[in-house]
Amino acid sequence: MQNRSIEPYLNCSFACDCGRTHKSLFAHYIFEAGAIAKLPLLLEQLGYTRPYLISDTHTHEIAGVMVEEILRKANISFTAHVLKSPENGDLAADEHALGSVAMANDKDADIIISVGTGTINDLGRYFSYITGRPFMLVATAPSMDGLVSGVAPLIFHNMKITFPAQEPLALICDPEIMVNAPLKMLAAGAADILGKYNCLLDWKLSHIVNDEYYCDTIAGIMRTAVDQTMESTKGLAVHEAKAVSVLTEALVLSGIAMDFSENSRPASGAEHHQSHYWEMQFLFDGTPAVLHGTKVGIGTVLVLELYNTLAQMEKPDFAAIRENVSGRPSVEEWEKEIRRCYRDGAEGIIALEQKAKKNDPEGLLHRLAVIEERWDEIRELAKTAPKAAEISHVLEEMGAAKIPADVGISREYVYDSIRYGKELRDRYTILQFMWDIDKLNEEADKLVEKYCQ
Ligand SMILES: [Zn+2]
Ligand SMILES: [Zn+2]
């Protein structure tokens, strides 16, 4: 087997220079020809005898049939449930699909195996968690960064909510299957990884402004994975095996990086907030879903543009910004905007702000003092950001969407996602930073002008 950079991080625990001990329990990463044929042996080694298999119409055809054949030949009894994929669009990971998984459940199964990547992975991981059983994943496409993850984003009452979930014991990838995934899925996986350029900048920015915990080792692991993916995008465009291997490894590493940091900081920043915001609007409007990574790619171009602007920005007049703090929109005006943007989800966003107090004058004035003092350092950080145009070009080369209109995201939604997408989570990013220095509205105007013609 080829020498892989992932090996040292499987099933590991180490004391890090950052002062913390990092752990990942994810142990079995099988990416090799005939990987699925190894499933019976792996189950035997781990002591499991009766899997409950979950797939959908597409993933069943791609890999589910093969998994069943192999288990049958090995005399391993199993229950298989194939969720019906809709005629157009993708199956949603919602209460309906979860109900179907629950109703077909084999209560005597001792392990749950999802055969699929996006929805099927999320459903299996969550169902394993709530029924207290271990979980494995047979992946069918390297399309998103949740291959190895301890949370599952599920849709409940038309809202996307992140639930705790069972991290997989093992990830099984047959390169033959992964390489033949549609280009749209390979490009989405790569775009999800390219978004990490921004995640890492946001994380460091918050470390500077808020003294948030930061780890150079974790950031370095992620940075290497992103750089390698960036070099592989031409290969992905032609379904090259090596490029798909690099991408899959980067997706797994981003899961491991989240295990290490014990949150999603290294893998989710402002670009993911843009993606989540648009996804919510799609759900409210009842429009067909767009692949997670595809939206993340578009969001990455927009937010990197903000870093590129910051790299060129003159030091603002902080005295004037402080003087104008009382002139910013009141809580009532802000809530009115949140109700307009977040519709049925507004109460959750308002409750989050009451807890997080991101926009309170006291916290703002404190951050402004730090930003003023460390302005040069912040600008130096911004200078390390890749150019938005470069990422846009790479997305284009893979045939991926690169501007909002490519996937039907309206100008209005982009304008709102830039100004209010930051309210989705209590996480400091370039969007909150631009709001802090009172430039967010102005930058939102410029971005919409440039990217939403
Ligand atoms: Zn560390
Ligand atoms: Zn992602």
Textual characterization of the structure:
This protein is α/β, with parallel strands linked by helices and 453 residues long. Helices cover 55% and strands 11% of the residues. It contains 20 helices and 10 strands. The strands form 3 sheets. A 6-stranded parallel beta sheet has the order 3-10-7-6-4-5, sandwiched between helices. The chain has a two-stranded antiparallel ribbon with strand order 1-2. Helix 11 packs across helix 16 (375-383). The termini are far apart. The mean pLDDT is 95. Residues 16, 18, 20, 22, 215, 217-218 line the site of one zinc ion (ZN).
Please write out the topology.
Blueprint: E1 12-15, E2 21-24, E3 28-31, H1 39-46, E4 51-56, H2 57-73, E5 79-83, H3 95-103, E6 111-115, H4 119-131, E7 135-139, E8 151-156, E9 159-164, E10 170-173, H5 175-179, H6 183-194, H7 196-210, H8 216-237, H9 241-261, H10 270-285, H11 292-312, H12 318-323, H13 331-342, H14 346-356, H15 361-373, H16 375-383, H17 388-397, H18 411-420, H19 430-436, H20 440-451
Helix pairs in contact: 6-8, 6-9, 6-11, 7-16, 8-9, 10-11, 10-18, 11-16, 11-17, 13-14, 18-20
Bound molecules: zinc ion (2 copies).
